[in-house]
Amino acid sequence: FVPVDRSPDIQEARLKLPILGEEQVVMEAVLENPIVIICGETGCGKTTQVPQFLYEAGYASTGGIIGITEPRRVAAISMSQRVAAEMNLSQHVISYQIRYEGNVTRETKIKFMTDGVLLKEIQKDFLLSKYHVIILDEAHE
Predict the structure, then answer these.
(1) How far apart are CA 61 and CA 58, in angstroms?
(2) pTM higher than 0.90 for the full model?
(3) For a designed S-S bond to 45, which of 17, 105, 120, 127 qualifies (C-beta 3.0 to 4.6 A apart)?
């Protein structure tokens, strides 16, 4: 378990998200299955909260990264900023990478990126070995 120091306001807002009530179910599914599909209404917290669940469960504490793909550049940037703010962590820890821009460092634990960035990485490392978990957000797009 990795502790996160969230502000009381953020913690209160998180409690209103439907996905928070499913944290145990999500984490058990991730632990027991190589692939997990999570479906939920828009705004239920899938994009911002699932990476936080994984981080707190230690999926980025042993050198691996939690990767999240987004179909659009603006989503990759804004979601990295949102999650960093919610977790009260640096933009170097919660980072983004888009085609010609990014703030990924050696400190990065959660990386939001466009689909194209991940496809480029597959060309160099087919097993994507630096990732412990990869989330394909908005996979239907």
Answers:
(1) 5
(2) yes
(3) 17
When computed from its CA atoms, the radius of gyration of the chain, rounded to whole angstroms, is 14
**How does residue 141 score in pLDDT terms, banded at 50, 70 and 90?**
low
CATH number of 8-136: 3.40.50.300
Q: State the virtual CA torsion across 119, 131, 136, 45 in degrees, nearest 10.
A: -150
1: confidence class by pLDDT, cuts 50, 70, 90: confident
Q: In the numeric block, which tokens belong to residue 122?
A: 């597959």
CA distance from start to end of the chain:
33
Compute the C-alpha angle 41/43/46, nearest 5°: 80
> Can you give the residue ranges of every domain in the chain?
8-136
